[in-house]
Amino acid sequence: MDTSVTKRMAKSFSWLVLGEIIGRGISFLAVIYIARILGAAAFGLLNFAQAFQSYLVLIVDSGLSTLGMREIARLKSNAGAISINIYAIRFFIALIVFVVSALILFMLPLDFRLRWLFIGAFLFVFYRAFNADWVFQGMEKMDYVAYPKIIYSALCLLFLILMVKSSADLVTASFIYAVIGILTSLVFLFILFKWIAPASRQNLLPKQWWQYFSEAIPLGASVILTQIYYNIDTIMLGFMDKPEVVGYYNAANKILSIFIGVLALWTTTAFPIIGKRIMEDINWVASFLNKYVKLTLMVIIPVMLLTAILAPFIIDTIFGLEYRSAALALQILIWGVVLLALSNTYGVLILVPLGKSKEFMYGVGSGAIFNLILNALLIPAYSYIGAAVATVLSEAIVLLVMYYLSRDRLRISIFKNLRNPLIGSMVALMAYLLTLKLFPYGYLGIVSASFAFMVIYLLVLLGMGEKPFILSFFNKVVESDQT
After folding, report:
1. Using CA atoms, how far apart are residues 46 and 459, in angstroms rounded to an integer?
2. pLDDT tens, residue by residue, 188-242
3. Is residue 72 a contact partner of residue 186, using CB atoms and an 8 Å limit?
4. Does residue 403 sit in the same domain as residue 419?
5. DSSP, res 132
6. Which runs of E-coded beta strand occur in 104-146?
7. What CA–CA distance (Å, rounded) separates 400 from 393?
8. Are 449 and 436 in contact (CB under 8 A)?
9. Counting CB atoms within 10 angstroms of each CB, which of 112, 286, 331, 461 has the fewest?
């Protein structure tokens, strides 16, 4: 990566990580609070409703945010005009989706509390319709992505603590997430159009709306299909098993979502850079992506291994002994992050910038179909463990298909870049096990062994000749901070 690009990525990623760490950290505290206050059964019901909500949110977006981010990255001076038209489309879709969903809910023979739980969850579509993150990402103003995340998370935690005191407040929790989200999005939407990317009603061009929508459909379908193999398991578990089981599985998923969120930020940081350069210099992009993949694997391979080892400790510490059954699910699910990092590279960072939206859709579609079949086969026999296995195997299928569809476009040396992180992780694992023998099992032993793991891993990488690559990257990050 050349110095100027590394500076931009370092600055953008720093802001995104800041927002992610603080925002997700606060959100995670909120999850811990409601998981303990509501109990496994009510917590499972909340996640069951939110699983349906996630599909409605994706319908509202329909790929428009990805399309808009790509177009804004190519022509930042036109950000206001592009975004105001996309927001108009998203609002109308959200209105239709919410009204239709509410009518269906009131026609179904549901319990009063359950019906209003879903209504609160479905209001979330307006939060996503007005969300401005994608505009700021396209403009590479990542500080404005961080601010609303932090504010939203802090307000949610505050009101959850004030208003949710027992499982009887389940519906209240659902409405808190939606209402605070809508208000936060509207505030930053006002800031966007008032000061950052000014736009007015004169910029609205209804005749172009269908063009935007039709171009975004393959991207939207891709995101919906991706969501299938990430949370259809929750829905199927809700129908096939007890609410407590859904709660266990989603406790593991909440941990997993932290890693996926950080990975998404890393991918988002690279997307505008590649989107602008891929049509100008494909060889530069190939070199950039090989370094990007190498750095990504250096970080996530040891982190995933350490997370798998510490899963029981993590679940017990965060959620309590009631959720101990979630540890095995986490140990399985965590390996999907490595597969996701690679499939995102081939799909999000190669096919989408090249305008190969249909090919990208085929990739995630294969994973969705495979996931549905595997869940239907594995959940009845193995419950939430089967669901975890289905998710990881589906991600592997997506990776294979994405690689096949992009193989003639760019070459990335996956196995070469995997070798050193794998060797380093294995040596670090031995150091972890040896350290545990020197200290009594417990908090001190786990912390000491984890520290030994990280130190030995870094030393092994340096000893295998990765020192120039690591130092080069961090030198450029330091330069970006001083600039």
Report:
1. 45
2. 999 999 999 999 889 999 989 999 898 888 888 877 777 776 778 888 888 888 8
3. no
4. no
5. -
6. none
7. 11
8. yes
9. 112
